[in-house]
Design brief:
Oligomer: single chain
CATH architecture of the largest domain: 3-Layer(aba) Sandwich
Shape: globular
CATH topology of the largest domain: Rossmann fold
Helix content: 40-55%
Number of domains: 2
Number of strands: 15
Structural class: alpha/beta
Radius of gyration: 23 Å
């Protein structure tokens, strides 16, 4: 089955529920993201560039209700308007929003339809000034967009790139690595059709086409796909976890999220990868996943070192005790499992450092290997404080008693009267 592209030749095309869920994640993330950018009451300007590399036609029909649904370009535009209102409503000195938009679309019909609906929605005057609408492939525009952002925000290159490709090879890793190398505060939200990759890959294609076009090396330690299929009952999980780690590594991002969107229509799961250079950005996206758990799954364990846990068995074999694809769905059960796992794992890290570890350092060094948010880390540490397994001490020497009190620079220490911890 080939990947179905949208068709705007006769107006809006139909959008499926899983894609609406993806748009909801983008909307939720942007709402939280804008709040993180305005931390000082004296700040007077917010400079940001938002890039939609696969913008589509702007409007869709909902597959169930047949109502019109706005696409990602309007999510960008409306999220900015909402953030500007919320941030400035109680400020004596309003923040001036200097936001630029790049909407890139290679399909001619989609490009023309997006131009049409933008004008109909009142954005005609912004086209060519703050809104840059391009009929092109994202790869062909990436270098010029990077240079634009460097001129606009020379100190940090603050930007978000949403790269919602149809499959898995339209955004090779060297392109993303170039973004991070040039723009320190850039963030990338990338979709990757992992099930399409697994279902249609052959050994020859993986060697000569697929991985070469994606821009990564052979990640399976010299084994062929057929060898993995025949020798490893958990081969799909193994390939996914290995390819995922290789992919984010070649992209050059220091922080990333390992979460998957579940497609209930039978077209397969795909990754929604958020990549950045700061753990705070990673935590904001993780919180968004927890708050929108209905469409998300996580292939891995509940605590740290999640990819070392027993993995995904597509046959749901009852001999496997940790079925992440079935059991970890960012719900209350998953949250309790995360807290329990962290309560077992965090003390081992702390007890190996007599001088202690700051909360910020603990989270920054371990968050990439955990589905837990910083809030869940704090919940687990609060329970460890209650059980006198660890101490948490602030800069002023005060002992923390609740997770909400814990700050980034607080030291987590073994207790003075250390009990037996196994």
């Amino acid at each position: 089955m080939s990947i179905r592209h949208y068709d705007w030749s006769a107006g809006p095309d139909v959008i499926q529920q899983h894609s609406i869920a993806k748009h909801r994640i983008l909307q939720s993330y942007l709402a939280a993201y804008f709040q993180t950018l305005v931390s000082s009451p004296n700040q007077d300007v917010l400079r940001l560039t938002l890039v939609d590399g696969f913008a589509g036609g702007g409007l869709y029909y909902h597959s169930d209700t047949q109502k019109l649904v706005k696409g990602s370009p309007f999510i960008f535009l409306e999220a900015t308007k909402e953030a500007e209102f919320l941030i400035n409503k109680d400020r004596r000195k309003p923040v001036q929003f200097e936001v630029s938009y790049f909407f890139i679309e290679a399909d001619r019909n989609a490009h023309l339809h997006l131009d049409k609906v933008l004008r109909e929605e009142g954005y005609a005057a912004a086209l060519g000034s703050t809104i840059h609408l391009k009929h092109s492939k994202f790869q062909d525009e990436a270098d010029s967009i990077i240079q634009f952002i460097k001129r606009k925000s020379p100190r940090n290159g603050r930007s978000i790139f949403v790269l919602d490709q149809y499959g898995y090879k339209d955004v090779p890793t060297p392109t993303i690595e170039k973004i991070f190398a040039n723009l320190p505060s850039a963030e990338v939200i990338l979709t990757f059709g992992i099930d399409s990759f697994l279902n249609f890959a052959s050994d020859k294609k993986i060697t000569n086409d697929f991985l070469g076009e994606i821009g990564i090396n052979q990640p399976w330690h010299g084994k062929t796909l057929e060898e993995l299929k025949s020798s490893d009952r958990n081969w799909r999980y193994f390939i996914q976890s290995a390819l995922y780690r290789e992919l984010v590594g070649w992209c050059g991002a220091e922080y990333f999220t390992p979460f998957f969107i579940r497609n209930n229509k039978g077209h397969g799961d795909y990754w929604l990868l958020h990549m950045s250079q700061h753990h705070r950005a990673r935590d904001v996206m993780t919180e968004v996943h927890w708050n929108n758990h209905n469409q998300f799954i996580h292939y891995g364990g509940a605590g740290l070192n999640m990819f070392q846990m027993v993995g995904y068995d597509p046959d749901h074999d009852s001999d496997f005790k940790q079925q992440s694809s079935l059991g970890f769905e960012f719900d209350d059960v998953a949250k309790e499992a995360s807290i329990d796992a962290l309560m077992q794992q965090v003390p081992r890290l702390i007890y190996s450092h007599d001088e202690g570890v700051s909360f910020g350092e603990l989270f920054a060094k371990t968050c990439n290997t955990s589905p837990a948010s910083a809030a869940i880390y704090r919940d687990a540490i609060e329970k460890l404080i209650e059980e006198k397994i660890i101490d948490v001490i602030g800069d002023d020497g005060a002992h923390r008693r609740s997770g909400q009190q814990i700050k980034s620079k607080d030291q987590i220490l073994p207790p003075r009267q250390r009990g037996l911890f196994l």
